């Protein structure tokens, strides 16, 4: 089983780790784009171009044959999913990422959606809220600088960015939707910051998309799981053979993937 994952940076780690845990026999091709990151401030056309380039680089690295293309990035899913599906389907399923607003709103209690500034302002997020949380108290929270802080793995920057978002999250909130896959990597810091705030929520629940995206990808691929491991992880940096960035190893998901990493292909 060969799976390509496409994102600008290490936001893909939580989804990739979920896939590797479920299918330790799989070959994962992690196509990152450090030369052009972050994608959030780019135009939709630029995001489409970068997502297509990343997917095609991963397919080439896999010898021209992958079982699925996974897009563990909200920005790339919003702007590039249709074009990716036109390029690869029906031969290769393409699986995107949608913020977990629907499961978070199921209880009917107040929620907040933490996302990038661009996503917070987007028609895409507004439509998701209207569709799945029409009768729920929803607070959008623009997490200024948080994705970039996670990418840097700088504890001080992460703490400051998380604190900024936590201060803008009402105390009545019972669920936090992580609307950027980078945020999955600092879930403990997020819940910790909310607990420490004066009047913060008790027992706030985080809702992420990583496990659901991984499960959907495996459903689309089909086939029984192979016994044992033997899988491998390959990394591409803007199309070039590479290793996992050092920042990835700061997070459990990155360390789990590093265990299956192979030397850069030539």
TrEMBL record:
Superkingdom to which the source organism belongs: Bacteria
Record key words, sorted: Isomerase
Entry GO MF terms: glutamate racemase activity
SUPFAM superfamilies (alphabetical): Aspartate/glutamate racemase
InterPro entries: Asp/Glu/hydantoin_racemase (IPR015942), Asp/Glu_race (IPR001920), Asp/Glu_racemase_AS_1 (IPR018187)
Gene3D superfamilies in UniProt: 3.40.50.1860
One Gene Ontology term from the biological process aspect of the record: peptidoglycan biosynthetic process
PANTHER family (alphabetical): GLUTAMATE RACEMASE (PTHR21198:SF2)
Entry protein name: Glutamate racemase
Native source organism of the sequence: Nocardiopsis flavescens
Upper taxonomic lineage: Bacteria, Bacillati, Actinomycetota, Actinomycetes, Streptosporangiales
